[in-house]
Amino acid sequence: MEPVIGILALQGDVREHAAILERARARARPVRRPAELAEVDGLVLPGGESTTMSRLLETFELLEPLRERIAGGMPTYGSCAGMILLAREVLDGRPDQRQLDGLDVVVRRNAFGRQVDSFEAELDFAGIEGGPLHAVFIRAPWVEKAADGVEILAQTAVTGDETARIVAIRQGPVLATAFHPELTGDERVHRFFVRMVHRTT
Ligand SMILES: NC(=O)CC[C@H](N)C(=O)O
């Protein structure tokens, strides 16, 4: 059976995720209401603007139901702004930014922006085969600190700062990438997530 995977559809690149999830053998559903959230086996939090998205989560009365489902073990994948929302703590965030507490990490918002706003890189991604992944970063965060138990799946450095920064992680059923795999037509990250959803259904 193909799992039903929701995409939080308050803002951001929802359609791109839906298309790639369907190719990765899942049934994609937009999620805007608590009743829709209750029906999915897993959820994607797309890229966009994390501060706007956190405000919309409150307006649409999704913040608490979403926190509860994540705490209850629902497989969740956050890309870029989604990674920021899932983190326990955000550096350079806005004061009213709300967190979903799905990942025991500290992320820095717009972190690469001090060097370059957007860039692309080839990444080795632990658990994904078939060669390096072409990754697109747009005003991306990085993971500044990760607790024990958080698996580091990919890292990258940028010109002008040779420090390898953490850009993909997993903690139990929660996956996050600082980049946008939905924009490159490579469905391997979504397949990786669909496999995570299968393991819990
Ligand atoms: N492409 C993205 O999702 C950018 C994230 C954005 N900089 C934020 O703070 O939410």
Automatic annotation (TrEMBL):
This is Pyridoxal 5'-phosphate synthase subunit PdxT. L-glutamine binds at G48, E49, S50, R109, I138, R139. InterPro entries: Class_I_gatase-like (IPR029062), PdxT/SNO (IPR002161), PdxT/SNO_CS (IPR021196). In the presence of PdxS, forms a dodecamer of heterodimers. Only shows activity in the heterodimer. The gene is pdxT. Its EC number is 4.3.3.6, 3.5.1.2. Catalyzes the hydrolysis of glutamine to glutamate and ammonia as part of the biosynthesis of pyridoxal 5'-phosphate. The resulting ammonia molecule is channeled to the active site of PdxS. One of its GO terms (molecular function) is pyridoxal 5'-phosphate synthase (glutamine hydrolysing) activity. It comes from Amycolatopsis alkalitolerans. Belongs to the glutaminase PdxT/SNO family. It catalyses: aldehydo-D-ribose 5-phosphate + D-glyceraldehyde 3-phosphate + L-glutamine = pyridoxal 5'-phosphate + L-glutamate + phosphate + 3 H2O + H(+); L-glutamine + H2O = L-glutamate + NH4(+). It comes from the Bacteria. Keywords: Glutamine amidotransferase, Hydrolase, Lyase, Pyridoxal phosphate. It holds the Pfam family SNO. GO terms for cellular component: cytosol; glutaminase complex. The active site is at C80 (nucleophile), H180 (charge relay system), E182 (charge relay system). Pathway: Cofactor biosynthesis; pyridoxal 5'-phosphate biosynthesis. GO terms for biological process: L-glutamine catabolic process; pyridoxal phosphate biosynthetic process; pyridoxine metabolic process.
